[in-house]
Amino acid sequence: MKTLLKSIADPQRSLWKNISLFFLLMGPGIITSNVDNDAGGITTYSLAGAQYGLKLIWSLIPIMVSLIVVQEMCSRMGVVTGKGLQDLIREKFGAKITFYLMIGMFLTNMGNVISEFAGVAAGMEVFGVSKYIAVPISAVLVWAMVVKGNYKSVEKVFLVACVFYVSYIITGVIVKPDWGEVLDHFIHPNLSLTPAETTMVIGLVGTTIAPWMQFYLQASIVEKGIRIENYKYARWDVIMGSIVVHVVAFFIILACAETLYKNGVQIETAKDAALSLAPLAGSYCTYLFAFGLVNASLFSASILPLSTTYLICEGLGWETGIDKKFVEAPEFYGFYSLMIFLGAGIILLPGMPLIDIMYLSQVINGIVLPVVLVFILLLVNDRKLMQKHVNGTAFNVVAWLTTLVMIALSLVLLVQSL
Amino acid sequence: MTTPSKDFYFFSELLNRRIYTPEGECLGRIVDLAVDWVDPYPLVIGLLVRRGSADAKAFLHWSCLNRIAPQLTFSPAAAVGRMTSPGPDTVYLREQVLDKQIVDTFGAKVVRVNDIQFLRLHSQLRLVHFDVGLRGLMRRIGWEPGLAAALRWMFAYEWPDTFIGWKYVHLLSGSGPLQLSVSQKKLAQLHPAELADILEDLSGHDREAIFHALDAETAAETLEEIDDPKLQQALIETVSIDKASDIIEEMSDSDAVDLLADLPQATAQEILEEMEEDRAEDLRELLVHPDETAGGMMTTALLSLSPEETVEATLKRWKEEEPELDVLYYIYVVDPEGVLLGVVSMRELLVASAQQRLREIQTSRLITAKLDAREDEVVELLTKYGFRALPVVDDQERLKGAVRLRSVLEILAPSAG
């Protein structure tokens, strides 16, 4: 221990110092990003690949830049203020705005939770397990894990499980893509503004940059207690996380483009994608794909309801904490249980219009996101709050541009869905 | 001032209200209230008014108010001359209190302010309650009248308010000297375990502000009650080396050592150098032992005496040293080399006659742990024999310290917090 401390403190070994500090502080960014690659994300990426081949793959680059810009602001706010995003919004913008924002967050995240359980159902069906068995078991597991178990260690298990996203990368390599062509699509971005294609691009943006992520990331940063001197390591964590998301997204699109698109297979869900891979790329590709889907869905299903409950209860000033008893924090447990059992229950109802529900939640997502982005920008530029850590001019230009594009895209989506 | 219609006002009713001149001309809207943070109840001294959409705000002194109902009316002529700038103990309610977190020192928890209630006394408004309940939140959003009426009509249910009296509130954003002294008095009424819970509930600067407001002794006791070593470390790193050493000096050996071991070595060294020589020496010795062994869990603040000591002299010594001792219930009997010969409990000491010697009353069938005994062995011995402290010896059976039952409580009942 002594020698370790010495080596960290030794200025000549600053590279080691930097690397060890990075590993100490990493986590929030990478976890947030991996939760982001959830059932909805995988479905959207599969559809993009299957319907448009590699045509839209260039859009991952600007989406990644936007994600980094937005998440960097949130993590900076978390480090400087030591408060969650919902606390800052409540304190600056008041009870009324916060209340309606929380209703919006509840609705959009409820939609996300439903789609996570749909992802569990779809993934397990590929393995031949009925959704009437898979969904109730996973709902009870997720619920019990937080209420009865130790949430932090569960988070670590899932972080390790993130390694299984490699399954998508393997799938993408197995299908032997023409790398020259892939590169060409990045260098010559191409978008014909047909309504269907615009919707797909908006879908890609919407599934990658979600309102809940910003709340969740900032909360994790605050909980980690990162100090401003060490902020640069947290920043790397956020950037790394955003890159990882997009690498995984890239390989999902690639796998689907090289197989399904080239053979003209039409799919509607991630499950279709997994099943259609079998005749084209071998059955192990199907299982890899389905396994990734189940893992991603379970990971997100265990984090989304909890983080939503935290942010609503904190924003509205209710008692929170999984170490509290039910009578001490009834709203907290009430919301949490409601989200999980309603989310799982809806999947099991026969004849539920699942596609419509998920679409609706995407629309609410689109309405809430610009509001949250504007709040983030106003807060991060508040000198009283951020002191000298407000955005620089160049950064502000990029951030506002990102926000305006997001608002424009959301408006287009909204208009189209009406 | 003509008679207004009621005695209690909510901040939510006043915020954003238009105010008028006696001639009926609109002066602007209320954007904030300034109160003087004093006993017995904070007094509203003025309001900030914004005109139109301009950013400039004007301060209107409360004494210029003509009447509250039916509309807030001011005499601007009087107001112009009375633009007194607020003092250091002025609190702006919208800016510093509303929607912010406060510490409820009665319930010992952190809550968020949804609304603020004032009482009208003569022609003045005094702050009496903070509303932290759902009803206050709904009042802010504008749903309260409808919901309250619906509850009454449907279930004959009177919706209760959740108020906290001003006396029991500690502001997290207060910074004036008087505010701080009022706050310290309020915080001092809390048990360290409650303070620890509050610190765990808070984040960042609020947490530091509270921790800094505590005196060294309370801070030490509070740190001992915090279970999360990372939080302990984060808190101690926010105070100066000077204060940190004062605080750690007040902590029990085992807690102090645990904390020092978690700090970066350079910081720990600096803190130790600031301490009293003897204490620093003890702590350095303890730091050598790994955390999860008897040596790392023990305290050295105990009373060890020669077997020839009389009961009377022992009690006298005990009384003198009591403030410094961690192990109060046992007196350890050692030979000149420090080898443990026996243990005398307080109970045995009190029932013995004054001139008896310790060797006559000591228990010499000894249950001890070695310095490198594992945590679970120590816990097993302590619980099996029901001791309050277990003596720790080295290979030559010399007494090195004792592990208190208290320090293994966290291992025994982790869920009890």
Supply the CATH class of the largest domain in chain B.
Alpha Beta
Low-confidence spans of chain A = 1-12
Helix content of chain B: 40-55%
Give the structural class of chain B: alpha+beta
CATH T-level topology of the largest domain in chain B: CBS-domain
Mean pLDDT of chain A: 81
Count of helical stretches of chain A? 19
CATH superfamily of the largest domain in chain B: CBS-domain
Number of strands of chain A: 0
The CATH homologous superfamily of chain A is named Amino acid/polyamine transporter I
Which chains share the greatest interface? A-B, 23 and 27 residues
Instruction: State the major sheet of chain A.
Output: none
CATH domain topology of chain A: Amino acid/polyamine transporter I
Number of helices of chain B: 20
Count of folded domains of chain B: 4
Q: Please report the total strand number of chain B as a whole number.
A: 20
Shape, principal axes of CA atoms of chain B: elongated
Describe the structure.
The complex is a heterodimer of chains A (418) and B (417). Chain A is an all-alpha fold and 418 residues long. Chain A has 19 helices and no strands. Chain A has one domain: Amino acid/polyamine transporter I. Helix content of chain A is 80%, strand content 0%. Chain A is globular, with a radius of gyration of 21 Å. The relative contact order of chain A is 0.19. Chain B is an alpha+beta fold. Chain B folds into 4 domains: 86 residues, PRC-barrel domain (SH3 type barrels, Roll); 86 residues, no CATH class; 98 residues, Alpha Horseshoe (MgtE N-terminal fold); 113 residues, Roll (CBS-domain), CATH 3.10.580. Chain B has 20 helices and 20 strands. Chain B starts with 7 loop residues before the first strand and ends in a 5-residue tail after the last helix. At the A-B interface, helix 1 and helix 6 of A face strand 10, helix 4, helix 8 and helix 10 of B.
